[in-house]
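Lab notebook: predicted structure, single chain.

Context: the supervisor wants predicted structures on file for every construct in the current expression panel, including those that have not yet been purified. This is the next one on the list. No modifications to the sequence; it matches the entry in the shared construct table.
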Amino acid sequence: YKTGLYTSPHLKDFRERIRVNGTMISEEFVIRFTEKIQPQIAAIEPSFFELTVAMAFDYFASEKVDIAIIETGLGGRLDSTNIITPELSVITNIGMDHMNLLGDTLDKIAFEKAGIIKPGVPVVIGETLAETLPVFQEAADRNAAPLFIAGAERQVSNYTWEKEGFAVTVQNCSTHDSSTYQLDLAGIYQTKNILTVLAAVDQLRKKGWNISAEQLHTALQKIKSLTGLHGRWEILRKSPLLVADVAHNEDGIRQLVQQMAMTAHEDAHIIFGAAKDKDINSVLRLFPKNAH
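Prediction complete. Output recorded below exactly as produced.
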């Protein structure tokens, strides 16, 4: 399939946000689109993000993609990406972030995220908490949207770090069959993400999308090269070990610190940067006390 990918933010080049089959949008298209809609920019005064979403959708239409993966920006309900009616909605996990816009409790944030649930469109929930599951269930019931919990059908039974990445064994809860997947992303949190991926692929197959087991295995081995995503426990150098990770909120840092504890090291040096809207005090408390 010819596949579009829209993500945010970018790390280095604006064009990272908009890709087709892994290749970034051309500079020429960005310039041409921006020049073309100058009158609308003056009249409507859209935000930077809204403009980028419009550019992505225009690009995917012009490239005639078969399917696109669209990541919401903030929340979901009022996000400009939410204009689409998707084949499938996916909600990964809910953490305390962007509280100034989304609400100061997990159920309030979940309500905003649940805004992407559409009438009759299946929704896969990656992780649930006691505070968030009722919110998702209510939104799904209201929209007559079939709801699937990623961890209900499969569990990770084993994982090991290997020379070239991360091997994760997943077991089907009902049949007890298991498969081992090789991932080129080595973060411990990929044990949660892989269950979400497998549940999402199940639902796409039911809707007629042809995704073979072989294609799935191949894709998971090449996530970085296929998506261009960086900074997910990304090992930049092995001796001494140098790792980059984009974790910036409490949930992300917990995962990062867990990963550090499982990684052999004698002395840890941490450089942490965050935007001014982040609750950095709660983050700093989580870092190892014996690190520099």
